[in-house]
Amino acid sequence: MRHKGLFLLLITCAAASAWAAQAPALNGGLGKGPVHISADSLHAENQPRQQAVYTGKVVMTQGDVVINAQTLTIDAAQGKIQKATAVGSPVTFTMSAAQRHGYGNILVYLPDSAEIILTGNAHLWQEKNEVSGERIVYFLQDQQTRVTAVPGQRVQSVFYPAAANRSASGNGKKP
Fold this sequence. Notes:
The protein is α+β, with helices and mostly antiparallel strands. Helices cover 16% and strands 53% of the residues. The chain has helices spanning 2-22, 162-168, and strands spanning 36-38, 41-45, 50-62, 65-77, 80-95, 100-110, 115-126, 129-139, 144-148, 156-158.
């Protein structure tokens, strides 16, 4: 039984390493360096599927990317990460080098298509600029964003002109 538990732990570590290897680079963030995950508990399985489920105050870091969630599920196939799903109230993430941060009820990371998908009261900032809606898809490689609203509602955005953005980074007063 002890060998089975060790085997599952090794599979989980291999899955996290595969995630790191498959993820695209973004100014030192995703795809750079090891993935560190801390949580209150972990359940991993190799049969019938490769899956690791972290629960309780989950913190995942890789490079300058930090994700905080209640649950993080990593699904793999043949040792390759297919999808990572973080759930929380809300899930938060930061990408320091890209000066982006955001939150939503669910965050899905798809390494093959290099997408981060936020759903449920989703917000994404770059510096002071903000977009919000029901669903935000952020394409890591070309840094494009697609936002959709709840039916009957509208997408919201706030953008600061370059000069206003510089002065907003201080005390909010113009120099």
